[in-house]
Design a protein that fits this description.
Layout (H helix, E strand, L loop, with lengths): L17 E4 L4 E3 L8 E6 L6 H19 L2 E6 L4 H10 L7 E3 L3 H6 L4 E3 L8 E3 L2 E5 L5 E6 L9 H13 L11
Length: 177
């Protein structure tokens, strides 16, 4: 039986995340210093047309997120070649693209994992998710999906960031079971 890692709680330290970027650099969550948040967008991989559309929509709002102090990274369990192909084919430049997330890292973030249904899919990959991490390294909010069809509304999130930031709105969902 698979063990499910506990879901990280808002208001608590975010799980570690250290990855390689397709540009040959290293990226570590602990090294980030955004004005407001680091937004980690977990996508399924190159095989996912819904990811292509979602990340394309994000690319169209990328500058708006940056203007509100939100640094963005797209992350998957894909290898470098698949991640680079997605970045290029989906027109995601200049959003940083991390690759090679491990199963252990995905589980630490509370991501759901799936196995391949056909030859186009990797053997194991994470389902989509999105997390906002505060500059102090605490998790502010997270949404993880068990299916490719459920995604956060990026326009709604963007439209509420000013309120969240200006009012210093506290993280919700902080009560442990």
């Amino acid at each position: 039986m698979n063990q499910i890692a506990p879901m990280p709680l808002p208001g608590q330290p975010a799980p570690d995340l250290d990855l390689d970027l397709i540009i040959g650099a290293k990226w570590a969550l602990a090294d980030q210093s955004p004005k407001a948040f680091t937004m980690i967008v977990f996508y399924r991989g190159q095989h996912c047309p819904i990811c292509s559309n979602f990340l394309g929509d994000l690319r169209g709002m990328y500058d708006d997120f940056l203007s509100k102090g939100v640094e963005v990274i797209n992350v998957s369990m894909d290898d470098k070649d698949r991640a680079a192909k997605s970045h290029e084919a989906w027109g995601l430049d200049p959003i940083p693209m991390g690759y090679g997330m491990s199963e252990a890292q995905a589980r630490a973030w509370g991501l759901y994992l799936s196995t391949a249904r056909n030859d186009n899919e990797p053997g194991v990959f994470s389902e989509p998710g999105l997390a906002l991490v505060k500059p102090d390294g605490t998790l502010y909010m997270a949404e993880m999906s068990s299916a490719p069809f459920l995604r956060p509304d990026l326009k709604a999130l963007l439209s509420r960031l000013d309120f969240i930031i200006e009012k210093d709105y506290p993280p919700r969902g902080t009560k442990a079971a």
